[in-house]
Write a structure and sequence with these properties.
Blueprint (H helix, E strand, L loop, with lengths): L8 H15 L17 H8 L9
Amino acid sequence: MILAAGLEFARYSALLAEVRRLTGLDGLSARIHHGPIVIGPDEKRLLREVPPHSVQR
């Protein structure tokens, strides 16, 4: 890669991080994923199950 020629790894990583930040491609999502709104029968069964070592008082 021509851009990386002569750059140390840390400086190259910092440069890429800055480019991602400036272009808005930093990979961080501004939204929170809440999962499916409607759960199916398999998910309902899993929510009802309690592991044998779980003690509920």
